Amino acid sequence: MKSPHMEEALALARQGTGKTSPNPAVGAVVVRDGEVVGRGFHTWAGVKHAEAIALEQAGERARGAELYLTLEPCSHQGRTAPCVDAVIAAGVGRVILAMTDPNPQVSGAGVRRLEAAGIPTEIAEEYSAEAEQLNEAFLFAMRNGRPLVTLKSAVTLDGKIAAPEDNTGWITSTLARAHVQQVRHLHDAILTGIGTLLSDDPQLTDRTGLERSRPLLRIVVDSTLRIPLDSRMVLSAANDVLVATTSASSVERRRQLEGRGVGVLVADGPGGRTDLRQVVECLAKEQYRSLMIEAGSKVNWAALEAGVVDKVFFYYAPKILGGMHSLPVVGGAGRKHRRDAILFRDVRLHQITKDEFAVDAWVVK
Question: Which residues is 122 bridged to in the sheet?
């Protein structure tokens, strides 16, 4: 059954998108006798959670009212007091949730606290999928203990990302590239390889101009620290650039980078390469909820082969490069038999322009 109040709560939650990490985006609506008397959504800078804002706005009218929430209220002490305590103290009559919270510190405890206080709760299951999508990265991190990793690329219809000689210009359209920025804005960190950096000298910044709860962490995989000190990424570093390297790299070079505000992570992997799994583990410890990989063929394959990629998001342009020397989206050794191919599930298509589309899909683990 459609609920305009839950739909409003979800719309409110979306206003916090990009502004809440490492917390989830949450919306709250307080309804008394069919009238909305309180609204709220969470942002990291605003500190207060959605429930607290909505209940404060409702005041005494919250007593006996219905509270619509996109996510189960927290039941643990964080930067703020447990939201479930505020709900109980306000005397709310009933709570309707889009979904429970898989955070191990909550995970049903909020519901149990409410029901123990005599406040009935209800899960609006028809909105659970939408609520899941809204906080996809946060929920993945809570369930898996690490950030959601998405491999993004712009490709031709024959799966190529670069020509063998002249690579000026773009594969996809202006609209597609603007869409990429919107997707980038939703991520906490972005990673590329030293080959891409040396070739394109990218900044890898969030160019949407939209507010963020934390700077986009820019990561370069560079096993021997070939990154130029005058590259645009190093010159623009403000404690938001991390270079993942190996112990084979120069200690002096590490000092030079650190002196320029660039973090250095030594992560030795097999074959003298940087271990991408250690990079992801480092992000998990710092509560980064999502990582987008925007790299070349070699890093794309290394990430897939290491098992760190959870999703792919490929933009397809109506072009074909052909040839044996144009770079494919995924290079490396590859799989030798069709039966060993990396499999995907839950494939979705997104129309970007009349002639361009994107595909996102989950890796079958």
Answer: 96
Sequence-separated (6 or more) residues with CB below 8 Å from residue 325: 164
Q: In this structure, are residues 318 and 356 in contact, taking their beta carbons and an 8 Å threshold?
A: yes
User: Could you give the residue ranges of the DSSP H alpha helices within 117-188?
Assistant: 128-134, 136-144, 174-185
Q: Model pTM?
A: 0.93
Q: Among 22, 318, 303, which residue's Cα sits nearest to residue 173?
A: 318
Instruction: Say how many CA atoms lie within 13 Å of 270 toward its Cβ.
Output: 4
Tell me how far apart the alpha carbons of residues 178 and 175 are, in angstroms, rounded to a whole number: 5
Residue 244 β-bridge partners: 221, 265
pLDDT the model gives residue 127? 97
Q: How many other C-beta atoms lie within 10 A of the C-beta of residue 195?
A: 16
Bridge partners, residue 221, by sequence: 193, 244
Task: Please say if 51 is a catalytic residue.
Answer: yes
Reported as a pLDDT band with limits 50, 70 and 90, residue 78 is low
Helix (H) or strand (E) holding 241: strand 241-245
* Closest to 227 measured CA to CA, from 194, 271, 266: 194
Around 55, how many Cα atoms within 13 Å sit in the side-chain half-sphere? 23
Lowest-pLDDT range of 121-130, 149-158, 164-173: 164-173
Report CA-CA distances (Å) from 143 to 137, 138, 146, 319: 10, 9, 8, 39
CB-based contact 360:351 (threshold 8 Å) = no
Candidate list 7, 8, 35, 51, residue with the active-site label: 51
